[in-house]
Every structure is written in C-alpha cells, then in structure tokens.
Amino acid sequence: MKDNIKKSYLLNIVGILSIYLILKLLIGGNVLNRYHISIVIFICINIILATSLNLATGFLGQLALGHAGFMAVGAYVSAITAVALKSSGLPDTLMLVISLLVAGIFSGIVGIAIGIPALRLRGDYLGIITLGFGEVIRVIINNMKSITGGAQGFTGIPRIANFDNVFWITIIVVGILYALTHSRQGRAIISIREDEIASEAVGIQTTKYKVLGFAIAAFFAGIGGGLYAHHLAFLDPKTFGFMKSVEILVIVVLGGMGSLTGSIIAAIILTILPEALREFANYRMLIYSFILVVMMIFRPQGIFGTKEFSLSSFLHKLRYNQIISPRKEIKGDE
Amino acid sequence: MAILQTTELAIQFGGLRAVDNFNISINEHELVGLIGPNGAGKTTIFNMLTGVYRPTEGDIKLDGVSIVGKKPYEIVKQGAARTFQNIRLFKNLSVIDNIKIAYHNEMKYSTLEGIFRTKRYWKEEKKAHQESLDFLKIFDMQDYANTLAKNLPYGKQRKLEIARGLATNPKILMLDEPAAGMNPQETYELMDTIHFIRDKFNITILLIEHDMNLVMGICERIVVVDHGKIIAKGLPEEIKNNPDVIKVYLGE
Ligand SMILES: Nc1ncnc2c1ncn2[C@@H]1O[C@H](COP(=O)(O)OP(=O)(O)OP(=O)(O)O)[C@@H](O)[C@H]1O
Ligand SMILES: [Mg+2]
After folding, report:
1. What is the pLDDT of residue A321?
2. Ligand 1 pocket member B42 (CB < 6 A)
3. Measured on CA atoms in the order B101, B107, B109, B110, is the torsion positive or negative?
4. Measured between CB atoms, does B52 come within 8 Å of chain A?
5. CA–CA separation, A160 vs A97, rounded Å?
6. Do the interacting molecules here have an ipTM over 0.85?
7. Partners of B31 in the beta sheet?
C-alpha cells in the first residue's frame, strides 16, 4: 500500500512538472503571448477560488454565496500589505507570499467571525446571510476611501504575481486542500455534509468542524483575492459583487460538488470559454448559460460528481482496458 | 453497578408531555428492551439519553456521571452510542469510511499534521484503516469495504449502522428499532448479531423494538411505555402476561 502511495505521489509530481515545463516552453517560444499568460493566471486564481469554495459547499455541504466577499477582503489586505512592504527591498515572490499570508489570515478570521453565528443556520438562510455578508464587505470597501480608494479603485499595487509564482502557489493550495480532505478532519467535514445528526452521534464536534471548514475556505479565498490584486495591480470594489460569488459557485457546481479535480477542470473551461466566445460578443453570455443549462439537465452532479480524477488509476485503467494494445502488455510481461 | 440510570426524566413539547416520570436503571452487560405502541415516546427517550433533546426535568447518569445538558458528541465520548429508527448512514461514502469516521476521536493528529502528512498521520491512519477492516470482518462485511453505503442491501445497512456505533467504543449501545423493515430471516440473523456483539464487546444494550419475537427472544428485561409513562417493567414472561401490556397491545 505504501508503495502505491509513493508511486501516485511520483506520478502526480511528474504530471505537474510536465504541465509546468510545457507552459514554460510555450511562453519562452512566444506561442503564448501576454494575453494568454494572463488567462493562465486567471485560471489559476479561479482554481484557488473554486477549490476553496468547494470545501465549504461541496465537502462541508453549506450553501455559501459570499465567496467574493472573502476574495475582496484578501485582495485589499494583500494590496495594502504589499504597498507597505514596497520600499523594503524584499524579492517579489517573498513579498507576495508575505502579503498573501496576511491576506489569508485576515480573511480566515473574518470567516470565523461570520461562520460562528451564520453556521447555526442552514440551507437558504445560510445562503442569504453569506450573500448579505458579501454585499456588506463591498459597501465597507466603498466607504473606507482613505485606505481602499473607495469607488475610484485602489491603484499602485505592486505587480508581483507572475506565471511562475502563481502556478506553484496554486499547486500548493490544491495540494493542501487535497490532503485536508483525506485526513480525519476532512472526513469529519464530509460527514457533516452527509448527515449532521449522524455525524454528531459518532462523536464529531460538528460546530467546530463547520467553522474550521468555513475558515479554511475563507483563508484560501483571501489568497486567491490577493493573487488577483497582484496580477491586475488595480482593484475596483464593483468586481467583488454577488455575480462574482455566483461565477465561482458555477465553477464548483459544474466540476462537481466535492471534487477538487472537478473544480480544476471546470475552472479551466469556464475561464477559457468566455474568452474564446469573445468574438460572439452579445451571444457570449447566452452560449455560456446554455452550456450550463444543458449540463444541469444531463449531468446535474457535475463533471466529476464527488469523485477525484487520479492519474495513477487512470493509467491503470488505460492498461487493463487494453486501450494500449494488448501485444505491448505481453511484451512487458516477458 | 448501574451503567445507565434515569430519575424522574420528563420532556414537554408545548402542551404535550411526551415522556413523564421515566425511571430506569440498567446494569452493566444487561440486554434491555424498551417497547410500546406508536407514539409512546420511545425515540424521544433515546433522544434525551443521547443529548439530541434536553429533558425539561430529571437526571440521566451514564456510568455515574450526569449527562444532562451535554452535547451528543460529548455523550458519545463518555460511552453511549446509538443507531436511528430511520437509518442514518454517510450514504455517499464507502462502508469503510463510515467506520473510520467513528474512529475520529481515537486518532489524535492535528489539522496541520494531517495536511503535512507527518509520521503520526500515517501511523494513525494506517491503524484506523486496519482496525476498521477488522471491524468489518467481525460483521462479515469485509467484501463490502469499498461499496458506497447507499448501495448496500437494507439489512446490511442496518448492520453497518450498528458497526459504526460500536466503532466509537461505547459502554452502552442503544438501538432504535434495529429490525424495522427486515424480513424474518434478516431479523433472525440480527438477533444473533446482537447477542454476539454484547458478548464480544462486553457492552450493555438497550433496544427499542416493535417485533415481539425479537424482544421476547433476546431481552433479559423489558420496559413498556405508553403515552410517555412506564406501564410495566420485568422479565419477558411477566411482560407477556401483564394485563396492562396486553390491553395496550391488543386494544380493549
Ligand atoms: N420534536 C418534537 N416536537 C414535538 N413533538 C414531538 C417531538 N418529538 C416527538 N414528539 C411527539 O412525542 C411523541 C412520542 O414520539 P416518539 O417518536 O418518541 O414515539 P415512538 O415511541 O418512538 O413511536 P414509534 O414507534 O412510532 O417510533 C409523539 O406524539 C410525537 O409526535
Ligand atoms: Mg420511534
């Protein structure tokens, strides 16, 4: 069993490195221009936002409609921190990591503060509370003109996010969320989604794990927001509205509630799709919605349901379903 | 010594006194049946004993310690496990994960240790995995380890719920109508299982049941409730011939 785990670790590392190197080569060879790189960075940010929301909604089972609020908290806190550190002469990536950690912790604390009272409620009620929270955050940002720049926006943010650091931060975030969901704490979180009463009846302190799941989701949403700030170098409170929360939720639902790999695939599709449809201008949103409606009719559980895509079992299947020719298989045995 | 003792336990839902003046004392290793017609208050009694409802009056002592006002998860830690009348499994999870969740408190590694997968994480996870498998073997369910709980046949779902309760390492196990919806063959197997786990795990069992054969067949002592009040207590023979019980069960 240990060997299997080692093997799948190795496979994942190889897989990730290959993706990184391919993208690197494409960028180096100017196949991907600045616009394309920007899309890749947005994909990464959306992956962080969607996987973190998935923890709260897909794994914990709580309808959260204010993810953009946590993203906004993270974006502004990270921007403020980086501006303060600007003259310190720190290397870009170190400055980015520090700003993101401050942003994540701040956002996580806000998550706990909102979560403790809000998580007493369920379903629609929790949805409404979190929705309200997202709007309140936006209003606060709008009114704290001296710090946030208010409605005019926040300018002069150090542009310290680049393809390399964003890529690896995304890998780390997803890795942490994956490990979390496969620990005893993660199982406790999932058991709450499955049946809260049963969960408590087998000794799980449900309130604690609800708040934990919610806080971790907020922490990473804050980091996603921070990356957004350091990529665009400009923040406008309008971008963190209710529609942004819905956009993230759509990624989660499309990929599959409770599947991190599903969120990754859906984030890639739903970031590229609107860009690819840009030439259809007015029809863009129509096509986008149409695809979603079709999806919900034919595969309401999302692309992956609650399952995770695993490279090792995929390769295993490839071999044993003999998609690779049977002869090769025999050769290997000799 | 009494493992579970209630004194003048009562609960009021608005105008309805669902349970009133409920006194029982269950000794270690006993197998006690709680019976009564529909709506008598049996499940409500379980809900008070496991912290789901807070009694409006009276006291509950589990192994000598009062548990009134404690949360269900705290009561589990003190040694009381239960099953539900309408099965509550973690449906979309595998059979083995259902058991592993009950091992939650056996494992001690922190959230960060879990995320960074320290030595302790691997050690405790491996142990929990092995013990969960052993557990399934006891119930002859090892072949279903990776089956989703919702895909199990009905009888096996009931069994899994009992196994999950036992995995919390309780002193007393409370079963709410474990034979509900089972055919006679399954009920018969269940009687065996219940006897077996009591001896194997050396625990006390309190069970609610409608199936008279099952109750009379395995319980050493029976408590009968009607309209929230105890109307009879005693050995199966005594209960069978008690005129009050006959009246309640067979009508006038
Ligand atoms: N939360 C509640 N609020 C109001 N009334 C309740 C509540 N829970 C139970 N009751 C009432 O208490 C009474 C006893 O219900 P209970 O479920 O304990 O009966 P039971 O003996 O388990 O019956 P059954 O054999 O049908 O399971 C019923 O009249 C029920 O309607
Ligand atoms: Mg009942």
Report:
1. 58
2. yes
3. positive
4. yes
5. 10
6. yes
7. B205
HSE-CB of A128 using CA atoms within 13 angstroms: 6
CB within 8 Å: B81 and A202 = yes
- One CATH from 1.10.10, 1.10.3430, 3.50.20, 1.10.3470 for A33-303: 1.10.3470
For the stretch A67-102, pLDDT in tens is 999 999 999 999 999 999 988 888 999 999 999 999
Q: Rounded to an integer, what distance in angstroms lies between the CA atom of residue A96 and that of residue A103?
A: 10
Angstrom CA distances, A175 to A48, A57, A77, A249, A289, stand at: 11, 18, 24, 21, 31
B209: its two tokens: 């049941």
For chain B, list the domains and their CATH numbers.
2-90+162-250 (3.40.50.300), 93-147 (no CATH)
Positions of chain B with pLDDT under 70: 250-252
Q: How far is CA A211 from its chain centroid?
A: 18
Which chain A residues are within 8 Å of B160, Cβ to Cβ? none
pTM for the model stands at: 0.91
Q: For A271-285, how does the pLDDT look when each residue is reduced to its tens digit (9 = 90+)?
A: 998 888 777 767 767
The minimal CB distance from B73 to the residues A195, A204, A212 is found for A204
Which residues 6+ apart lie within 8 Å of A222 measured at CB? A70, A71, A73, A74, A77, A78, A100, A103, A104, A105, A106, A107, A108
Give, using CA atoms, the residue closest to atom 31 of ligand 1: B39
